[in-house]
Amino acid sequence: MDVILLERISKLGQMGEVVKVRDGFARNFLLPQGKALRANAANKARFESERATLEARNLERKSEAQKVAESLEGKSFIVVRAAGETGQLYGSVAARDIAEILAGEGFNIARNQVDLNNPIKEIGLHKVTLHLHSEVEIEVELNVARSAEEAERQAKGESLTSADAIYGVDEDALRPEDFFDPDADGLDEDA
């Protein structure tokens, strides 16, 4: 199906372009969301008459997104979750959770603006991309830890999942010779 784009859509085209898309994509996403119109003579004339207002609205949305991006620049958010000793979370941190955390900090971000291919399933520092506008995206840091104290230690660069942090053992001091006798053949000589 041919459609006229009413806004810039990444990997598809710019505002005003007539592009060919799959019927389902047009019917289920582009048309209901108001991102495109069916490409026919009447809609082409309608787009040309409304082009100035559409461009002004797009520019306004972009400037608002840039303001939010500037306020998010360099921010780190702490996420406290229960986790095992190896750092594996009991559950995960999904896009919905990230949107709620940002809302708690005063940022109005929808969960579909959070670019998270897979949920976060372990403690640590994680970079997450936010798509605030089709032309504005920003990366924020999530500090996933078991407690606020661990988050502070983790932010300083300390690893909470290493053997030293878990067991109080220096990993470099661990050698196989300390645990196994390389000369032993594994047979009991008295038998």
From TrEMBL:
Stretches for region Disordered: 172-191
Any one annotated GO CC term: ribosome
PROSITE patterns assigned: RIBOSOMAL_L9
Protein name: Large ribosomal subunit protein bL9
Keyword Ribosomal protein: yes
NCBIfam families (alphabetical): L9
Source organism (scientific name): Rhizobium oryzicola
Acidic residues composition bias: residue spans: 179-191
Pfam families: Ribosomal_L9_C, Ribosomal_L9_N
Ribosomal protein L9 domain boundaries: 13-40
Classification via PANTHER family: 50S RIBOSOMAL PROTEIN L9
Entry's family note: Belongs to the bacterial ribosomal protein bL9 family.
Function: Binds to the 23S rRNA.
InterPro entries in UniProt: Ribosomal_bL9 (IPR000244), Ribosomal_bL9/RNase_H1_N (IPR009027), Ribosomal_bL9_bac/chp (IPR020594), Ribosomal_bL9_C (IPR020069), Ribosomal_bL9_C_sf (IPR036791), Ribosomal_bL9_N (IPR020070), Ribosomal_bL9_N_sf (IPR036935)
Alphabetical UniProt keywords: Ribonucleoprotein, Ribosomal protein, RNA-binding, rRNA-binding
